[in-house]
Amino acid sequence: MVKFGTVLAGRRTAPTLFLLLATACSSGFFYRHADWLLMGYLDDYLALDDAQQREAERRIERLMSWHRYRELPRYAAYLRALLAALERPMTAAQVEDHFAQLQGFWASAMEAALPELQAQLQGLSPRQCEHLLRRLEERQQKMQRRYRDRSEAARAERMEKRLRRWLGPLRADQRRQLRDWASRQQDPYPPPGEERRWLQAAAAALEQRSEPALLESQLRQLLLQPESLWEPDLGKRWQHNRRQTAALYAKLHAGLDKSQRRHLRRRLEGWLSEVEALIGDD
Predict the structure, then answer these.
(1) CA within 20 to 30 Å of 71's CA: 92, 157, 174, 231, which one?
(2) Which residues, 6+ apart, have CB-to-CB distance to 137 below 8 Å?
(3) Is the alpha carbon torsion for 11, 17, 22, 24 positive or negative?
(4) CA 259 to CA 253: how far, in whole Å?
(5) What is the pTM of this model?
(6) CB–CB of 229/198 below 8 Å?
(7) What 3 state SS string does 204-266 have?
């Protein structure tokens, strides 16, 4: 499950909190108990007092209710459409369309979360703001350590690990496709100065927390438009890598054997069953 700090870190570094709750958790248990799990993450990043915790609990309850009744049906519809699409050949452009749909889920969830997050941040003390910025910086440093090996071999290995969850073991020719993909990737990671720029923008937003309009504008940039803080070259690299990844997925999809297709379908059907069960919960 994604932590509060990865949500604040913007869509470049993590999927949306709510999308992950709905889909990336392997069991509905996590979604059904998301309220207290999220409270633990919030308290870790914000060090809330008792009154703030009670208010945060009410905000989380509202968001989870909205998400269950508004977003989960959209996820179920998407998964059904994806299962149908996988029965046919898929082009790289079609894969990119799926990327865009997932980004749309992110935007929808963040639009709903922004007012609640803004209200929570407005009530922070200076000490709590310092604590939040320190935790965000620690999170960035942790991510940098996790992905410090930027070699082509490391990229291919990380991608293979992700794909095995969906497809099962890869064949030798598929691993060669991964190595070819890795050789075409451009460095997707920003230099330290770019990471500092995001933290500086977060600090500026917290400084303006007594001005609702300014805080809302800053949060929208941080969460929904983080690319506006990038250097132009980083955005170009990110788009290049996205196109290359879409092409890889399309090529892999065309070459799946029966076992891999069965493995992928079972994984997606399992997600769909989980989402449908959550929709049916009262």
Answers:
(1) 92
(2) 199
(3) positive
(4) 13
(5) 0.83
(6) yes
(7) HHHHCCCCHHHHHHHHHHHHHCHHHHCCHHHHHHHHHHHHHHHHHHHHHHHCCCHHHHHHHHH
